[in-house]
Amino acid sequence: MINLRHVSKRYGNSGKMAVEDLNWDVEDGKITGFIGPNGAGKTTTLKMITGILSPTEGEILINGKDIVKEPLEAKRQFGFVADSPDSFLRIKGIEYLNFVADIYGVTTEARKGFIEKTAARFEMEDALSSRIQSYSHGMRQKIMVMGALIHNPSVWILDEPLTGLDPKSAFELKEMMREHAAAGNSVLFSTHVLEVAEKLCDRIGIINHGRQVYLGTLEALKEKYPNETLENIFLEITEHA
Ligand SMILES: Nc1ncnc2c1ncn2[C@@H]1O[C@H](COP(=O)(O)OP(=O)(O)OP(=O)(O)O)[C@@H](O)[C@H]1O
Questions:
Q1: What is the pTM of this model?
Q2: 44 and 107 co-located in one domain
Q3: Which of 43, 64, 188, 197 has the fewest CB atoms within 10 Å, i.e. the most exposed one?
Q4: Which residues line ligand 1 (CB under 6 A)?
Q5: Is there a single domain that holds both residue 161 and residue 219?
Q6: Domain ABC transporter spans what residues (predicted)?
Q7: Considering only CA atoms, which residue is closest to atom 2 of ligand 1?
């Protein structure tokens, strides 16, 4: 569960808020999709939730832990996949996974089980012994997803996680997200691909110019705009806001 209370962000001395007065509950047992036009404030919001950026105003709780006041406890609750997977390029995939597992105190047995299972799903077994700099974009994305989930966090936060993944890997990651939510956990991810949001999400949050314009189920949104695709609804909401 993630709770945002009156969360706003201003970069530097800029007069304009990049994100303004977000009030969100990301519920357990559900996949929540976060959508909005370029520059709407999605990455800024995800970076505040994960403690990379401090909110200018407001409070963010992850499973009840305040990301500003109890950062270590709050950070144990989630796994985060950032929008760029180009990190830790000089080390091998397996070294990266062990490094992250060490930070979170994951046992040898638990990490072995996780790596075997997930590497098989992502077809990454042969790549683990190579340096990350030799990976394609999609392979880098997959190793970052594996690193984010290796400590079995209950809350998953993913910024554009399907970008660059081949169809099999995208299918596997979507299945993993569904399984995780079905087990009673929270999954929050941002995407520009509205078909993915439409098929995968239980709930949708739409942000425009830093402001929350919708948060709720897809069904409720479609009741409000009958016979419209999510694409048309999105364009309608964001063009006239
Ligand atoms: N480091 C920064 N310094 C100043 N302004 C920033 C910074 N990062 C983002 N912004 C501004 O904050 C606003 C929100 O940007 P953000 O990256 O959160 O949007 P986004 O919804 O993730 O966009 P996209 O879909 O293009 O990734 C934009 O106006 C952007 O110019």
A1: 0.93
A2: no
A3: 64
A4: 11, 18, 36, 38-44
A5: yes
A6: 2-234
A7: 11
